[in-house]
Amino acid sequence: MKNQNRLLWEKGDFTEIAKWMRRSGEEIVASLGIQSRLRVLDLGCGDGTTAVPLAQAGAEVLGIDIAENLVAAGNKRATEASLFRLKFQEGDACDLRGIEDRSFDLTISIFGAMFAPKPFAVASEMVRVTKPGGRIVMGNWIPNDPTSFVSQLLRISAAFTPPPPEGFISPMTWGMEANVVEYFTKAGVSKERISMIKDTYEFVALDKNPGSLIESLGRFYGPTMNAFEAAEKNGKVEELRDQLIELANAQNRNADVGVSIPATFLRVTIDL
Ligand SMILES: C[S@@+](CC[C@H](N)C(=O)[O-])C[C@H]1O[C@@H](n2cnc3c(N)ncnc32)[C@H](O)[C@@H]1O
């Protein structure tokens, strides 16, 4: 049987969306206080929005992603930037077999592992591969958050897409504090070691307009591509496009000179 999780992310070309996300990726890395010699795992790393600046900061980085095309794009970026301590490989956040226990000082996953279908397994694997005394950092979208462009994008997209199969656990559960605590305590982490704050990501392109972000999402971002395909069948493409453009325009803070759209997220830190 085909892995639907993998198909979703290989469907489009997330590198085209990641271009809008580079600045915030660099800012997250800058906030982590990376020193060289640190071994870092970036889970659901895409083409390296955080993995590349992590390696540039001196860490030895392994990026793991379920999508073959994004792993190839990440390795190309590493080679082009002569980052020889940065490697990307295919893998599933639900099952990191082949990765030894206690291998990493830092395991990071920015809007990555949240999309894996088995959250308890994901939490357990992240804890297993991180060294005692090390850290896990996650960025997770918050469901229905009115201040988050992505939460609203996913909410609108879901309203146009057929319901998921029974038993499907929404990735957005990772954006709710009670769920995060449940996933990690089940993986053996005590509550005091889990801290959560709201942080903000920014989608930025000063030479573009909000409509071009929506166009890119419709062409390259799996969840929005699925919404447009379903809308096409129901004659609702215009309705979907209008709602998304209205959202992007309403949230754009930089209407005069391009696009700068904020997106609130839950930043989770586990001190092991
Ligand atoms: C929204 S993108 C974020 C990518 C990257 N972290 C960034 O900030 O640009 C989600 C990523 O998670 C990956 N992903 C989804 N499910 C996964 C899984 N089960 N295991 C590993 N990666 C997964 C996707 O292939 C995709 O690259």
Automatic annotation (TrEMBL):
Provenance organism: Leptospira ellisii
SUPFAM superfamilies the UniProt entry points to: S-adenosyl-L-methionine-dependent methyltransferases (SSF53335)
Gene Ontology biological process: methylation
Pfam families documented for this protein: Methyltransf_11
GO molecular function: S-adenosylmethionine-dependent methyltransferase activity
Key words, A-Z: Methyltransferase, Transferase
Domain of life: Bacteria
Name the UniProt record assigns to this protein: Methyltransferase domain-containing protein
Domain named Methyltransferase type: residues: 41-138
